[in-house]
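At this stage, I needed to go through a protein sequence along with its fold in token form, as given directly below:
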Amino acid sequence: MIEKIKLLFNENKYVQIDKNIGNEICFTKEEREYLFVKDYSQEDFKSFFSCDKTKSLIDYFDKLKIEYSNAEKNSSLIIFVKLDNLETEYDLIENQILAIEEDEYFFRKYVIAYKEDMIEKLPNENIRNFINEVVTNGNIDNFRVEKFQNKLYFLALQLFVKLPFLKYVPKYNNFKSIQSILDNKLDDSLKEVNQLFDDLDLMNDEEEKLFLSQDTKDDDLFKVYQGILK
């Protein structure tokens, strides 16, 4: 798993820190953020906070901070957990995943569960494009019913959600993001408000007083502002 992830990091312009301070793996991008990568067995993961693997990682982190002073506040840990059977074992560690990801000490933490045969299906190049296609061709409705029916889809979703630098690119040109929909709605609402103020500018003093005294007009203006906030 780690070797494939190294390729994915390299594709996204991350370089591995090569220091003689331990065997841990850490990537950085222009020394602005630091991503640690660690592979855990199911047994080690169950005792994550006290196992030797985590202690070794924290020791490495402490040494790294001496040379990279900004690492303390700009580090994340990507935890890969190898399971033999997703269907039966994932539920057993789900609460542990939540507990670890919510833990605030040392660094932000993201947990990705996988099986070895899922990793074997990842290519050795253009991994980001490959998993983007997997998500595009997947079926989110089927996933909601049975998340392990398509294991590669499950892995691809985890990678997009858990790896901070990965962004899913929709395939279809007519796709509109939530942000673009909100922006369009805001633009339309602002045009209505501007039109109301333009109307006020064209009125003389008497007409303006009459306009502002009408409850219906006040209600209209309020509704426009209310629409912006929705």
Summary: Residues 215-219, 221-230 have pLDDT under 50 and may be disordered.
